[in-house]
Design goal:
Radius of gyration: 18 Å
Helix content: 25-40%
Strand content: 15-25%
Number of strands: 9
Distance between the termini: 21 Å
Largest sheet: 7 strands, mixed
Number of helices: 9
Order of helices and strands: EHEHEHEHEEHEEHEHHH
Oligomer: single chain
Length: 264
């Protein structure tokens, strides 16, 4: 069983990839450089720029705490590093075709389009950091703090389709949240759990133990990088300070029952 992994180049991606490499015969890792647009403060005033820099500095320090031991991809596997937004170029397509993988694994790339999706239909599995269909798009474990829906934080493993984060679901899960966790702890707990749940879900899919489930027809919230503004971050941090996590923990059972997820 030959696997190709398409991912990004952050610590979180290297951690998840390392767990996949431990469990599967991975023949190629293609890492796409992550965009820095979300961290750009050049057009912001001093107060907004300071807030954004502090937010991403805390995120980086938290990722280092959780995944600092995973600073390189495996040296034993062929690795191709590409610029941001180049995941759909002809060279990448040809590299993948030269291997003719049984399965392609996605985590953290820009949107896969066109020929790759068509040729490997239902053979591409995506790890989406968010609970579809409630939250789709980007930064989907950040926006639930804004909307006070902590029960919608988690991950979705699904079949990749042309429509973003809308494919049939193989498995979903939530992190174990503690009262003193901040937004970065909670987000990284989802990723940490992914190192366990993602290989398990892939094995279940390959063994055809569980049929992927069509997503329920609700509108949900489409999250966009350009909407991660200083004002949004201010509301999020205000919600944390006023007890949104504590409120969730006090009502956890009923809240998660209102937002059912698919588990293997």
């Amino acid at each position: 069983m030959k696997l190709v992994i398409l991912t990004s180049n952050g610590l979180r991606h290297k951690y998840v990839v390392s767990k996949l490499v431990e469990n599967f015969h991975v023949q190629l890792i293609i890492s796409e450089k992550k965009s820095v647009a979300i961290e750009d403060t050049t057009k912001l005033n001093l107060a907004d720029a300071t807030l954004v820099r502090e937010h991403f500095d805390k995120r980086s320090k938290s990722e280092m705490k959780y995944f600092g031991d995973y600073n390189e991809f495996s040296s034993e596997i062929c690795h191709l590093n590409i610029p941001h937004k180049e995941i759909n170029n002809e060279f990448v397509f040809d590299c993948i075709n030269s291997i003719n993988p049984d399965l392609i694994i996605l985590f953290g790339t820009s949107i896969i389009k066109g020929r790759l999706l068509k040729k490997y239909q239902r053979k591409i599995i995506n790890l989406h950091l968010g609970l579809s269909p409630y939250y789709k798009g980007s930064a989907t474990n950040l926006f639930p703090f804004y909307y006070k829906q902590i029960e919608c934080i988690g991950a979705t493993i699904h079949i990749a389709t042309e429509k973003v984060d809308a494919g049939d679901i193989i498995h979903q899960y939530r992190p174990k949240i503690d009262l003193n966790d901040d937004i970065h702890d909670i987000g990284n707990k989802v990723i940490l759990k992914s190192g366990i749940e993602f290989p398990k879900a892939i094995n279940s899919f390959l063994a055809k133990k569980n049929k992927p489930v069509k997503q329920i027809a609700i509108e949900g919230i489409l999250c966009k990088v350009q909407d991660v503004t200083p004002d949004l971050l201010r509301v999020i941090y205000s919600n944390i300070q006023t007890g949104v996590v504590e409120e969730f923990l006090n009502n956890e059972k009923s809240l998660i029952n209102d937002k059912p997820i698919i588990k293997i």
